[in-house]
């Protein structure tokens, strides 16, 4: 996951005035306070919110109850030295009851590297409004006094862990690479040659985490291994060299080159085939090349160069 401070956020629609969050017994400043809280009703106008009830896990040092009264003095000041992740919840919200225990567990595991702030939106409507809560559960973070991107709804635990890691990195905390037992099991199946089990495992990960590039790469590798199964590498390469217009041979030769650690040569071979072909044949070669890009992943510099070469070949 990328640094949340550098990615588009729900907060880019306009500035959020954190200074407006004064204790409830003081008048709020005039002026717009942002959109309403949506699923979190603010209650009758002029009504003073009751004290926030203690939420499960709040006794832990890693979990604090956040109110309109203590936001400035506790949360903002704390975020200058320790990242604070805010969990907006309500007692009537069933999805909140799924998400909150996961966040509380991760906060306890964090050993003080970050703090979870629990915000009851019913007890703190002005806080929910100022932070533009559209629905709950909603999670955002504060790093160095600045809001960073969050998410709404319930995510798989592995995705929540990735979000926490991104927040910690934004706060300058060194984070160890995240281990994903789902990915370990899928990779083990691939390495053992059980392609059907590997395919099912990677697809399950992608169903839960559609943007998981490692799972996309694993699934592309499954397809690659299936294509080369039973092929004689020497004869395939000889056939491709003898007839550059044999597109089936060129595609299979590119597969063999990728598996042999010659991915740039494979990309160059298929870009050249794109230039020589037209119509459906050209599109088939293009799609094949894209499948090889997926094997390497989006951050491979060779892929970036080959994508530019493919664009020139097509246009």
Search tags:
315 residues; alpha/beta; five-stranded mixed sheet; 12 helices; elongated; disordered N terminus
Topology (SSEs and partners):
Blueprint: E1 63-66, H1 71-79, E2 84-89, H2 94-109, E3 115-120, H3 125-130, E4 138-143, E5 146-152, H4 157-170, H5 181-191, H6 195-208, H7 213-228, H8 233-242, H9 247-259, H10 263-276, H11 279-296, H12 301-314
Folded structure, characterized:
The chain is α/β, with parallel strands linked by helices and 315 residues long. Helix content is 49%, strand content 9%. It has twelve helices and five strands. The protein has a five-stranded mixed sheet with strand order 1-3-2-4-5, sandwiched between helices. A hairpin with a 2-residue loop joins strand 4 and strand 5. Helix 6 runs antiparallel to helix 7 and helix 10 runs antiparallel to helix 11. It starts with 62 loop residues before the first strand and ends with a helix. 34% of the residues are buried.
């Amino acid at each position: 996951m990328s640094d949340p401070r550098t990615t588009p956020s729900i907060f880019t629609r306009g500035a959020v005035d954190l200074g407006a969050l004064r204790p409830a017994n003081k008048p709020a400043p005039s002026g717009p306070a942002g959109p309403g809280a949506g699923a979190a009703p603010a209650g009758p106008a002029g009504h003073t919110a009751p004290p926030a009830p203690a939420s499960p896990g709040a006794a832990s040092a890693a979990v604090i109850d956040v109110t309109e009264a203590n936001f400035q003095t506790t949360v903002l000041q704390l975020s200058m030295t320790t990242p604070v992740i805010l969990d907006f919840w309500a007692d009537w919200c069933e999805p909140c009851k799924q998400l909150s225990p996961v966040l509380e567990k991760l906060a306890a595991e964090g050993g003080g590297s970050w703090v979870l702030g629990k915000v009851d939106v019913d007890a703190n409507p002005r806080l929910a409004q100022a932070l533009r809560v559209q629905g709950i559960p909603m999670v955002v973070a504060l790093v160095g006094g600045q809001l960073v991107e969050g998410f709404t709804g319930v995510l798989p635990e592995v995705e929540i862990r990735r979000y926490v890691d991104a927040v910690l990195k934004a706060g300058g905390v060194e984070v160890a690479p995240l281990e994903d037992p789902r990915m370990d099991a899928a990779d083990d199946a691939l390495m053992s040659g059980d392609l059907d089990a590997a395919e099912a495992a990677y697809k399950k990960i992608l169903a839960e985490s559609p943007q998981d590039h490692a799972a996309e790469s694993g699934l592309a590798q499954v397809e690659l291994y299936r294509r080369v199964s039973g092929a004689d590498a020497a004869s395939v390469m000889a056939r491709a060299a003898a007839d550059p217009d044999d597109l089936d041979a060129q595609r299979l030769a590119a597969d063999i080159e990728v598996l042999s650690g010659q991915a740039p040569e494979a990309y160059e071979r298929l870009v050249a085939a794109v230039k020589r072909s037209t119509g459906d044949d050209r599109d088939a070669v293009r799609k094949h090349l894209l499948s090889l890009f997926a094997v390497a992943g989006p951050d491979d510099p060779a892929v970036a160069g080959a994508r530019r070469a493919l664009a020139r070949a097509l246009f």
